[in-house]
Amino acid sequence: MPDKFTATWVSHSSIGDFLKCSRSYYLKNIYKDPNTGNKLQLTSAPLSLGSAVHEVIEALSAIPTKDRFKDSLLEKFDNAWKKYSGKIGGFISEAQEEEFKKEGQKMIRKIIQNPGPLKTLSVKIKEDLPYYWLSDEDNIILCGKIDWLEYLPATDGVHVIDFKTSKKEEDENSLQLPIYHLLVKNTQNRKVEKVSYWYLRLSDKLQEQPLPNLEEAHEKILAIAKKMKTARKLNVFKCPEGENGCFACKPIESVIRGEAEFVGVGGYKRDVYILNSQEVDNSSTIL
């Protein structure tokens, strides 16, 4: 039997880190501060905005359909925002924080006015962090959280929905939906009928995407995961741009050199830092 405690765990975010730069993957997912024993995390305004909005949405999935909009979502957002207020959320000024908070309130209002699938039946996977064995033989586990699973009673199927708070649309070659399709297929019993993004800044409607091919997704993700496992085994994590680093690894390298400000300990016991120059990859939000 494979052992989940010795397995290599991979997710959409860790795979994304690895594909950008294996050094970045190492610094974000493996390296621990020798003084605290904690992993490192860079906070930023866009990431905190996404986290607060997603927190409100995720809480709705645990509420019976008829009661989801009983309480004020704006009030729930304000309460969630308190966790990210100030430098712990990556905000370098009160004006910047207020600007991002208003963006979040706009997205919540959009949901209130056009709830779409949030007002219909949903499926809630029991595990806090859904996972399955991507490969028993290779001792690799694929894990990840799904934003929303809409229940489709006509077919007893599910609709995978991912909420986006960034200003850009996801690249067509993104592995996010293929990974989510694999996760949902292997962590619950209903068939995935549809997959969609909801760009909350850009639209009040979902954008349905082509349903990923499961076999192709499995082979592609497994091939990458094997490379990640090999890199860990050999302890070889090199930046593709050499010693000078790239956009993905340089910010974390700055933290290690002592050029960032420590602002607290976040979730999963990560030491949280802020770069006042905000030289962070804010192109997307991963949750």
Q: Tags for this entry?
A:
globular, about 290 residues, single chain, 4-stranded mixed β-sheet, disordered C terminus, 3-stranded mixed β-sheet, 8 helices, alpha/beta
Structural overview:
This protein has 287 residues and is of the alpha/beta class. It has a domain at 121-234. Helices cover 36% and strands 18% of the residues. It has helices at 12-20, 22-29, 45-60, 73-81, 94-113, 176-187, 214-234, 250-256, and strands at residues 8-10, 39-42, 131-135, 140-143, 148-152, 157-164, 192-199, 207-209, 261-266, 270-274. α6 (176-187) packs across α7. The chain is globular. The two termini are 30 Å apart. Residues 279-287 have low confidence and may be disordered.
Quick structural overview:
It contains eight helices and ten strands. The chain is an alpha/beta fold.
Topology:
Blueprint lengths: L7 E3 L1 H9 L1 H8 L9 E4 L2 H16 L12 H9 L12 H20 L17 E5 L4 E4 L4 E5 L4 E8 L11 H12 L4 E8 L7 E3 L4 H21 L15 H7 L4 E6 L3 E5 L13
The low-pLDDT segments are 279-287
> In which range does the helix fraction lie?
25-40%
Instruction: Describe the strand arrangement of the main beta sheet, using strand numbers.
Output: 5-6-7-8
Return the average pLDDT rounded to an integer: 94
Shape: globular
Q: Main sheet, how many strands, which sense, barrel?
A: 4 strands, mixed
